[in-house]
Amino acid sequence: MSFFERLKTAASAEWRAYTGHPFTDAMADGSLPEAAFRHYLVQDYLFLIEFARAYALAIYKSPSLADMRESAAGLSAILDVEMDLHIKLCAGWGLSPGDLERAPPAVEMLAYTRYVLDAGMRGDLLALKVALAPCVIGYAEIATRLASRPGARAATNPYSVWISEYAGALYQEVAANARAQLERLASRYATPAREAELIAIFREATRLEADFWEMGWRARP
Ligand SMILES: Cc1ncc(C[n+]2csc(CCO)c2C)c(N)n1
């Protein structure tokens, strides 16, 4: 079994709660109230700013130039691609990038981003990439599942743009690269003695991802 499969198996209850959250199903069938999605997306913009810092930390923590380039590509995927989706969608509600940056941060956003940054600061690159894995690999898995639902990508679904973005080739490749890098790092730096610590980081980050959906889900009118 691959390293990532072992992490997922060890955190299977948390992984299921995250990747199968009702928020995601409601995006697929278009029934998610706009207010819930809007709250999620504004907080996700703040989340991406902090995650950009986590990728910058990963560049710093990289033992090799190849690892550095890998994290630099992730950083650019956030700053140059992913945030554009948020800016475009929020512009439709009359929100400017400045409005988004000034939004009051939710505790779920703070808890998750602080956790990942802290895991990265006290640990090595592998620990940081394990903390980032639920985010990068999870969204690719969720979007692929949602895109396979009938009507999910139809123009009548207000969430088709979001689904198509993460189910699209670009993000699928970002996730595949992240997964391959995780396997490479694990083969070099994971030892049986470290496995419990790495599983604990993965489980906690996955739980905080589910809490992030839950934050949006609670914002339903
Ligand atoms: C709560 C939350 N979790 C995951 C992602 C997805 N994501 C964040 S950074 C990144 C990698 C490079 O773009 C990806 C796929 C998100 N947007 N919000």
TrEMBL record:
Keyword Hydrolase in record: yes
Top-tier EC class: hydrolase
E.C. designation(s): 3.5.99.2
GO MF annotation, one: thiaminase activity
Keywords, alphabetical: Hydrolase, Thiamine biosynthesis
Pfam family, one: TENA_THI-4
A Gene Ontology biological process term: thiamine diphosphate biosynthetic process
Domain Thiaminase-2/PQQC: 14-218
Pathway, per record: Cofactor biosynthesis; thiamine diphosphate biosynthesis
UniProt xrefs under Gene3D superfamilies: Heme oxygenase-like
GO cellular component, one term: cytosol
Family: Belongs to the TenA family.
Cited function: Catalyzes an amino-pyrimidine hydrolysis reaction at the C5' of the pyrimidine moiety of thiamine compounds, a reaction that is part of a thiamine salvage pathway.
Official protein name in the record: Aminopyrimidine aminohydrolase
Species this chain originates from: Bradyrhizobium lablabi
Lineage: Bacteria, Pseudomonadati, Pseudomonadota, Alphaproteobacteria, Hyphomicrobiales
